[in-house]
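Q: Here's a chain of 554 amino acids. Please give me its 3D structure as tokens.
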Amino acid sequence: MKKAKIVLAALLLGLGSLHAQNKLEKVNITYGEELPDDKQTLVEILGEANGKIYGVGLKKDDYFLKIFDQKSMKLLSSSPIKIPDLKDKEVEFENVYLLNGKLYVLGSVYNRKEKAYSLVANPLSEAGKLGAEGTVLFKVPVEKKREMGSFFFRTTQDEAGLLVMHATKLKKEDAVKYEIKFFDDNLKTIFNTTEKVVFEDDKKKDVTFNIPDFQVGLNDDIYVVVSEGYRDKKSKKRIETFEVHAYKSAKGYAKEVITINSEGRYPLNCQIVPSGNELHLMGFYLSVRESGRVNNDLEGVYAATVDLKSNTTTALKFNELDHKTKVKLIGERRAKKGKDVPPLYNIIHIIGRQDGGMIMLSEYQTVYVGQPSGLAIGGVGIGVTPITYTKNEIIVTSLSKDGTHEWSNVVPKEQSASITTMFVGLAAGGFGNNFAVGGAISIPIAQMGSGPEYLGALPIYKNGELSIMINDNVKNKGITDIEEIKSMGNYNKAVPSLFIFDKNGNITRKDPEVAVKEALVLRPGVSYEVSDNEYIIYSARKKADKLARMVLED
């Protein structure tokens, strides 16, 4: 099938007329050839290198390395990924990473006898063959499987290095421990450090400890944001510590602590944006009562700028949510009565403008884990658990260079997808309510391909113009009022909708005039961001799967 370059409306909806080509403005898509029906669902796009695009496919419980031609986007090969057991222990698939054109498979394994939780990496050939010897990246001592913690991953901006964090709560010690390792493209350790935070007896009942974000910046510098707080019962005040731990390559990765003054406020989340000799931090914050207790509502958005030469805060702004935004989120009557905006918005994207300002996108996200059904054998639950992922409206916030609020607006949408997954009771759990490693809700790769990949949004930015693409219910055509929005419902019948923001935050919504039956549907959860205005995307409906390149043109 010859590759054709047409605007988004024609491609997604099968409309071939010239009149239809302007339905969704400047967003253009170049589709590749139709992919073969191999019963494998593409669940991850790893990136592009060596004239090829690399991805991960899933068929039941089996993973495949899928390679596409970079230009035609036709499938070149699909090879099963066979992960060998480690010391007779089954290795849990984590993901495949493409580092400087080199492929690696990462898996984790828990060894009950050794009381250790390990992360293992193997080089992967384009034929799907693993290297003869794996590399143990982490071997963490743990007390029991329930408390083995989790691994978290970040790649460098040039995708030539991998930053890994292991974090866990130590219940017996009333402490949290996290270990960070930074690897080059050969998986050689460049830097590692371990931190342990012990909760003092007089604090532990009211203490909260979070790692809202960690990133690799320019020059392979590493930044970790740490938020720790508690309520002092005597003074009835909230004691909050909000810090950036900086490990700079030029200083031999010696730990430097940068303190952000958040007194009287509770930072809910954070995203780090390195920019030259500055570090920007943005997120939502909650208000704190006079008694020192944290209110369970969003107070507003904060922005901080740090000078990395002096490690000082040069700008810090706390901006309360404006009334117009509250009305859009909770309605006029509730806003007038002073009702709360729930703290359920996670940062999904930050865009740096040429004038130094920032645009933050925050999405309403929840995960509901239902009651499992199955058997209990020897006290261990084995069965199926229903999980519902929800990704609703997006708050778009524009801040000036010094962090002052310029405008906010809301993309109205209502999306959810439910799946069922196997579980073993002892492996369930998490960190609990007083410890979390932040970031937007990530859906395990094993649960993609069954609905959650249709949720979310694709933001694209060029020449000062922000556009956000979503899947939506065809009945929502032309609607921007969140109170009138209908749920996406059956995501297989969704249609694309585009929300365009001008420099003052005003929204223009673009919808296709006609929804064509059996058209391809965008899967935002399976995409690869090439730049602010370009994505490699995956669209599918039943047997008609295709890769494509989505670009915002002038």
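Q: Can you summarize the key feature?
A: The helical segments are 8-13, 323-330, 332-336.
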